[in-house]
Amino acid sequence: MNNEIIIAKNLTKKYGTLLAVKNISFKIRKGDFFGFLGPNGAGKTTTVKMLTGLTSISAGKVKIFNKDIIKDAKFIKKRIGVVEDISNLFPDLTVYDNLLFMAKAFGVNYHTIREEIMNYLEMFNLSNKIKFKFLSLSRGQKRIVSIVSSLIHSPEILFLDEPTLGLDINVRNKVHQLLLQLNKQKNITIFLTSHYFEEVEKLCNRISVINKGSLIFDGNINKLKTLFPGDKVVSIELTKPINEAKVSKYFAHFKIKKNKLSITGDDVTVILRKIDKFVKDNKLKIKEINTEGNKLEDLFLRLLKQDER
Ligand code: ATP
Question: What pLDDT digit, counting tens, does each position of 103-130 carry?
């Protein structure tokens, strides 16, 4: 299909005897917001580096814009933006000079880019740092400037390796807003690695999971949910202790600890409806209620557990 903008086929990376990425294949369509998840050391950064031509490929192929990442590296690199896990900006140059350098390197007219640079920096309250050396910025500020530097040449695809690591919640939300805007309004394809599940759930329409170098899931959160239909848990804390005999009239699978009750079932909505009836019938009051099982974090942990078996 011609809207497949990134194609990885049997991609493999060896570092000496270590197989960091094992024969993985996936296709990403133009306009996708792709979330690449996996535990530490799973092979995410290595994959990003192979996709962006930053490290050699031991076996397999990468095609971007239907061109080969090795043979057509120059063509591809002009059209993609990369935010690496570790910044590649010059520590001794100022923020502004770093951004101008990037603009020049990509052949962008740096007279017209000035306003765009200022807009981005103002968005993150960093315009007062424009004349500061990059090395003098805080870790979070460096990350923002790295993100801005990847946007200077208006890329069609953005690769972001843990872009919001260590950012405070307000700044993280601003980054999310910006990325969603770029994706939805400018149809920029985004490849994101992250350890923040709420972030991936909020932003990505596609999710892949890598574990020990192998791809163990490719789809979206709804597909992931269908893999684990049972095991939804709703926990409630009541204002007084509960009688087990009474509870057993309403629920088949549950655990009681004083005034805490955990109910297991296939469907959270059904469990909640039964809880409502149980509470009303017995004139009880709920202090706190929590549901588990449907969140990306729970599904991810189950997927890894399943892969360990
Ligand atoms: P994290 O979430 O911790 O950033 P990751 O999924 O990005 O992890 P990678 O950085 O891709 O994982 O690393 C995958 C494996 O390859 C790890 O075992 C790592 O030690 C190894 N590795 C990565 N880079 C190199 C390198 N330059 N030389 C040797 N081994 C490497």
Answer: 988 888 767 788 889 999 999 999 999 9
The fold of 229-292 is Alpha-Beta Plaits (3.30.70)
> Does the C-beta of 13 come closer than 6 Å to ligand 1?
no
Any idea where the domains of the chain sit in the sequence? 4-220, 229-292
Look at the pTM and tell me if it is higher than 0.90.
Answer: no
Contact 152, 117 (CB under 8 A): yes
The Cα 170–Cα 246 span in angstroms is 46
Helical spans, DSSP H, in the chain: 44-51, 73-79, 95-105, 113-123, 139-151, 169-186, 197-203, 221-227, 244-248, 268-281, 296-308
pLDDT in tens, 67-91: 999 999 999 999 999 998 778 899 9
Ligand 1 close to Cβ of residue 17 (< 6 A): no
- For residue 163, the 8-state DSSP code is T
Q: Are 250 and 256 in contact (CB under 8 A)?
A: no
In this structure, the residue with its CA closest to atom 29 of ligand 1 is 15
Question: CATH homologous superfamily for 4-220?
Answer: P-loop containing nucleotide triphosphate hydrolases (3.40.50.300)
Paired sense of beta strands 59-64 and 4-15, if any: antiparallel
Q: Is 166 in the pocket of ligand 1 (CB under 6 A)?
A: no
Helix (H, G, I), strand (E, B) or coil at 246: helix
Identity of the amino acid at 32? D
- Separation CA 286–CA 53 (nearest Å): 55
- Check: CB of residue 95 under 8 Å from CB of residue 118: no
| In contact, 236 and 275? CB cutoff 8 Å | yes
Separation between Cα atoms, residue 109 and residue 103, nearest integer Å: 7
Instruction: Return d(Cα 268, Cα 300) in angstroms, integer.
Output: 18
Amino acid at 290: N
